[in-house]
Amino acid sequence: MPPVPPPVSISSNGDSSKPRRKPLTQKQKDFLSSALRVNQTGELAATLIYAAQMPLLTRTHPHLRPLMKHMYNQEKGHLDTFNKLITKHRVRPTALYPFWYAAATGLGWSTAFLGREAAMACTEAVETEIGTHYNGQIRELLEMTSEWTAEGYDVGPELTDLIETLRRIRDEELEHLDHAVENDAKKAEPHWLLTGIIRAGCRGAIWVSERV
């Protein structure tokens, strides 16, 4: 009689060859929902700022038209990305959509009215805060996935894709920051006050949108 083979261990997903997936804790679920919500809100605001700035800026500085269109199109792409993610994962969008719509449009129009340097200083301030914000999210996700890998769990494509998406968008936002500085953002008067107010407003908007 041939020897009886040892029993096969069946993993929780029904396939012993597949790595295990670690369920998200409630804190991790809340973090991811908050991240998608605030990112959607931020990209909406950025799109509205550029949309409000473009008519005034390109009328007085026609050479800026290609750059403004390029930055607007990238922001619109970012917004489309987070619109899809927030729908896919059934995340509640911000309840303050009308307020952020008005605030972003007003910021874009008013800085363009003040002139090219002020408009570029607005981009510099916003993208500085957004870049820092995305870096924080990426760092949090990398810590989470590194811990799972160390424990023998599979991270899965959704989180790895999200990290790469955040990295790409962050890099494009920082590209906008570089463009703003190259186009005399630092010459806005008073630069420290204008950028300080806008950066503080961005931090406040991020804090509120993560929660509401």
Automatic annotation (TrEMBL):
Its EC number is 1.14.99.60. One of its GO terms (biological process) is ubiquinone biosynthetic process. Fe cation 2 binds at residues 75, 127, 173, 176. Fe cation 1 binds at residues 43, 75, 78, 173. It catalyses: a 5-methoxy-2-methyl-3-(all-trans-polyprenyl)benzene-1,4-diol + AH2 + O2 = a 3-demethylubiquinol + A + H2O. It comes from the Eukaryota. Residues 1-25 are annotated as: Disordered. Transmembrane segments: none annotated. Keywords: Iron, Membrane, Metal-binding, Mitochondrion, Mitochondrion inner membrane, Monooxygenase, Oxidoreductase, Ubiquinone, Ubiquinone biosynthesis. GO terms for molecular function: 3-demethoxyubiquinol 3-hydroxylase activity; 3-demethoxyubiquinone 3-hydroxylase (NADH) activity; metal ion binding. Binds 2 iron ions per subunit. Signal peptide: none annotated. Catalyzes the hydroxylation of 2-polyprenyl-3-methyl-6-methoxy-1,4-benzoquinol (DMQH2) during ubiquinone biosynthesis. Has also a structural role in the COQ enzyme complex, stabilizing other COQ polypeptides. Belongs to the COQ7 family. Component of a multi-subunit COQ enzyme complex, composed of at least COQ3, COQ4, COQ5, COQ6, COQ7 and COQ9. This is 5-demethoxyubiquinone hydroxylase, mitochondrial. It comes from Grosmannia clavigera (strain kw1407 / UAMH 11150) (Blue stain fungus). The gene is COQ7.
